[in-house]
From TrEMBL:
Catalyzed chemical reaction(s): a quinone + NADH + 5 H(+)(in) = a quinol + NAD(+) + 4 H(+)(out)
Phylogenetic placement of the source organism: Bacteria, Pseudomonadati, Verrucomicrobiota, Opitutia, Puniceicoccales
Binding-site positions, [4Fe-4S] cluster 1: C70, C73, C76, C127
Family annotation (InterPro entries): 4Fe4S_Fe-S-bd, 4Fe4S_Fe_S_CS, NADH_quinone_OxRdtase_chainI
Pfam families documented for this protein: Fer4_7 (PF12838)
Cofactor details (free text): Binds 2 [4Fe-4S] clusters per subunit.
Native source species: Coraliomargarita algicola
EC class: translocase
Binding site for [4Fe-4S] cluster 2: C80, C117, C120, C123
Described purpose of this protein according to its UniProt entry: NDH-1 shuttles electrons from NADH, via FMN and iron-sulfur (Fe-S) centers, to quinones in the respiratory chain. The immediate electron acceptor for the enzyme in this species is believed to be ubiquinone. Couples the redox reaction to proton translocation (for every two electrons transferred, four hydrogen ions are translocated across the cytoplasmic membrane), and thus conserves the redox energy in a proton gradient.
Positions of the 4Fe-4S ferredoxin-type domain: 58-90, 108-137
Subcellular location: Cell membrane
Name of the protein in its database record: NADH-quinone oxidoreductase subunit I
Length: 182
């Protein structure tokens, strides 16, 4: 049987019994911190600076002409690891956009469940149309599960319009601007 060693507790000194050394040490830390620059923010009055390429809430964006860029190819829905995206493909209104209606589709419904989303950014990476972007929105709340599902309207409200880099529908105009018109 192992022998048990009993350790005697050292008796407190007079100073230790008054707790004064501990209080002085604590106050020293407090006062030295008061002179340093704060590292916390008074949120929500103060907001942090969001770095470029921050992965916030996923949103849908339109091109500078107000056209829906998403063609409801469903690649993002397929690639999304937690299956947060649900798309119902639809047609483009032929009367409103006759030049596009016979060549492209647009989502009839597009939902992103923010209770499932893990902000991985794979939807943005896979999108061939540069239509979905994780922007700088980081605080999202709701009172019910339903409120945490962003539908197509909300996704466009959050996303807004971004500059179009590949001029899918304005190739001629872009070529003219760069002096490459035929
Ligand atoms: S960021 Fe990731 S988890 Fe969220 S919707 Fe996109 S692919 Fe899905
Ligand atoms: S957001 Fe992009 S990847 Fe997703 S359905 Fe639309 S076009 Fe396809």
């Amino acid at each position: 049987m192992a022998k048990t060693k009993v350790l005697e507790r050292k008796p407190l000194s007079f100073a230790e019994k008054t707790f004064l050394p501990q209080i002085v040490t604590g106050l020293k830390t407090t006062f030295s911190s008061m002179l340093q620059k704060g590292v916390t923010l008074q949120y929500p009055e103060e907001r942090p600076t969001i770095p470029d390429n921050y992965r916030g809430v996923p949103t849908l964006v339109k091109d500078p002409n107000g056209r829906e860029k998403c063609v409801s190819c469903q690649l993002c829905e397929f690639v999304c690891p937690p299956k947060a995206i649900r798309i119902t493909p639809g047609a483009i209104d032929a009367e409103a956009e006759p030049e596009r209606a016979h060549v492209e589709k647009a989502p009839q419904e597009f939902d992103i469940n923010m209770l499932r989303c893990i902000y991985c950014g794979l939807c943005q990476e896979v999108c061939p149309e540069e239509a979905i972007f994780l922007q700088d929105i980081f605080s999202l709340s709701g009172y019910s599960r339903e409120e945490m599902i962003n539908n197509k309207q909300k996704l466009y409200e959050l996303g807004g319009t971004l500059p179009d880099k590949h001029f899918k529908w304005d190739k001629k105009k872009a070529a003219e601007a760069t002096g490459n018109a035929h």
